[in-house]
Design a protein that fits this description.
Blueprint: E1 2-8, E2 11-21, E3 24-29, E4 32-37, E5 77-78, E6 83-88, E7 95-96, E8 101-107, E9 110-115, E10 120-125, E11 132-133, E12 138-143, H1 147-162, H2 164-167, H3 170-188, H4 193-206, H5 226-235, H6 239-250, H7 254-258, H8 263-267, H9 269-282, H10 287-294, H11 301-311, H12 316-328, H13 330-341, H14 344-347, H15 359-376, H16 381-395
Helix pairs in contact: 3-4, 4-12, 6-11, 6-16, 9-10, 10-11, 11-12, 15-16
Length: about 400
């Protein structure tokens, strides 16, 4: 007896099929009994079957699928489906990254990539090619890196972002190379060592790259840094007067005192100043900037720094490097010009030694020089005052 339930046009019917005698079935529909006569099927004539002998064929070897090794109890990469291992992409001892394919599993007639679920090292492989596995079997054991190594790796990565190697640009490299060239010329070739060594080493210090967003306060232009405090001596004009004090104390004006006509040689430097000034104007610089650039023609580094800090602070760095480089390279520039403009005989003329200058003249000279020049050009007082003060100290 079989029972069926149907719903037709929203009406429910419970159908019970009872005994079937010959072609009569006893059927009950919602408690009402019916006798249902079924149509008899005509019997089909049997067809003869011809059986031909077949040659003996070699029996194909039956593939034996080995079960995977049981779970080790350790947390490993598990099989998501029952299937057969087609390929193993790793070996014990290999390091893997999260998402890296480690096993290919055939399941439901499809190849499935089994990926590592974390970074780590393969410590065990529980299956071989051809093994059958069940869902949830541990296929591979991956030992993740310890917390210490993760912390160490993160700290090293952060440290790298603070290094000069990670923050270097082409500009840093070029300026460091220029600084090294200046130091080489000063030491190996003895080209103005007192100028080129400080300039070259200053280039090295000023172009060490670092992370500007780290707030380390080590850069020249970072407010509050030690180098920025020292740099204020440049921007505020402290250093040029101090340099002039040293120049005055080191300079012997005896030749000028004994032969005042030599002032004309110094006056000739003004041609360089006005020439550089006019060229700067033609190149599009405004008069203030051109004035700061023009002082480079006077071959006077402290004066160039002082004036550029007043007239064009934004150009002070470039002007200072240009002026001091020009001064330091005079031993390179001057000889070919001298050979071009003079004959060999003129170059071997020996000048008469200057007359002896008395101590009184050496003392009076800086005082008169200060009063004369500063009354004529009062704006030159910071530099000229320190120059003649240093020379007076030398004289006494």
């Amino acid at each position: 007896m079989k029972e069926y339930k149907y719903k037709i046009n929203g009406n429910s019917y419970k159908v019970t099929i009872g005994d079937i005698e010959d072609n009569i079935a006893h059927v009950e529909v919602n408690g009402t009994h019916y006798k249902v006569e079924m149509e008899k099927q005509p019997k089909a004539a049997a067809k003869p079957v011809v059986v031909r002998p077949m040659p003996n064929a070699p029996t194909a070897p039956t593939q034996v699928v080995k079960p995977a090794a049981p779970s080790t109890g350790k947390s490993g990469v598990k099989s998501p489906l029952p299937g057969v291992i087609l390929d193993i992409k790793v070996n014990v001892g290999d390091t893997v990254k999260k998402g890296q394919t480690i096993i290919i599993l055939e399941a439901m007639k499809m190849e499935n990539n089994i990926n590592a679920d974390k970074d780590g090292k393969i410590t065990a492989i529980n299956v071989n090619k051809g093994d059958s596995v069940l869902e949830g079997n541990d296929l591979v054991i991956i030992e993740s890196y310890g917390r210490f190594y993760k912390l160490l790796g993160n700290n090293l990565a952060d440290f790298w972002t603070y290094t000069g190697f990670a923050n270097a640009t082409a500009g840093h490299v070029v300026m460091i190379l220029v600084g090294l060239v200046f130091i080489y010329l000063a030491i190996a070739k003895e080209f103005e060592p007192m100028l080129l060594i400080p300039i070259g080493f200053g280039m090295l210090i000023g172009n060490i790259p670092f992370n500007m967003d780290a707030g380390l306060k080590v850069g020249i232009y970072e407010e509050g840094s030690v180098l920025n405090i020292l740099y204020q001596g440049v921007t505020s004009g402290w250093y040029p007067p101090l340099i002039f004090l040293g120049i005055g104390a080191m300079t012997d004006f005896s030749a000028l005192i004994s032969n005042p006509k030599l002032m004309l040689i110094g006056a000739a430097a003004q041609f360089g100043i006005f020439g550089a000034y006019m060229i700067a104007l033609e190149m599009g610089f405004d008069p203030m900037q051109a004035g700061a650039i023009g002082i480079i023609g006077g071959a006077d580094g402290p004066t160039a720094i002082f004036l550029s800090s007043k007239l064009a602070p934004n150009l002070m760095g470039a002007i200072a490097v240009s002026a001091y480089s020009y001064m330091a390279l005079v031993p390179v520039i001057q000889p070919p010009i001298m050979r071009l403009l003079t004959t060999k005989n003129e170059r071997v003329i020996r000048m008469k030694p200057p007359r002896a200058v008395s101590h009184t003249e050496k003392v009076i000279f800086p005082i008169i020089g200060l009063l004369l020049t500063c009354f004529l050009v009062p704006s030159g007082l910071p530099l000229l005052g320190m120059l003649f003060f240093g020379n007076l100290l030398k004289a006494v």
